[in-house]
Amino acid sequence: MRIDEVALANLRRYLSVWDLHEPGARLGDDPEELHDLRVAGRRLDAILRQFGTYLPASLVRIRPTLKKVLRTLGNARDLDVALLELAAFGRELSEADQANLEPLNQHLRSERARARSRMLSLLDSTAVQKDLDKLRAGLAQPSGVANEAPQVPALEVVPHLIRERYKKVRKRANGLTPESSMESYHATRGSVKKLRYALESVAVILGKPADEMVRSLRRWQERLGVQQDADVAGQRLHALAAAPPKGLPPGTLFLMGRLAAHYADRASGARKRHPRAYRKVRGRWKTLKSKLEEMTPRVTPLPSSGP
User: Fold this and answer.
1) What is the pTM of this model?
2) Mean pLDDT across the chain
3) Helix-strand-coil percent breakdown of the chain, rounded to 5?
């Protein structure tokens, strides 16, 4: 199997997922539809980034458009998460405090409506629709057709790709301490995500060791994600408190302080669970590394030509 065939199969898979969830994400009734659409978009971007050397240039050129769409989806998704977290927080409050929380809820809903309007405008734009049509047309062609890129066996690419991704994860994770900045933890999460996406795209080749590694990476990424999401939410609240919009009464501002403390506790708890998740990944890596060594093509040395 060639590496371009692996990449194209993954692109077709995630474009189908995109098409499945785009209607629901546009409608906006179920926040998980937008989440699933964003995940599909991230996977598409990851495949284009990781395997761009082996793909038609016409497909790789849509990445800037895709990244712009992903930023807009991310803004809307952040507000979906903020509203879900606010609802969960509010369920633990008294009726009086729930009433004081309502102005914040209305403010976030207004922000969400504006973010969704920007999202829909971008999705409907001529540039985005044109590039998505290019992607669909390119993927409709048989593998190898009109592909000027090198067509290389997957076994010559996959072991090196996974090793390099893991090295980057290990370097970032080994540098973390309990006092490391949120930016350092976020960068580690980004490296973990890239390794996970790379493994998921070639898991059919690597088998069980890859599947087990992916599960451990997902759990680790989730731990790091809880910390990141809590930090983003806390920063949003601090910004609102520093320059409160009209309509937020003192009682709401007081509850925002309690909510910020709640996010800080969540972030702290997630940071404490990070080392255990990393140890689990290191253990899985030993098995996967052996699998990669088995797969790596052996190069027979040329016979000596004499002194």
Assistant:
1) 0.88
2) 90
3) 80, 0, 20
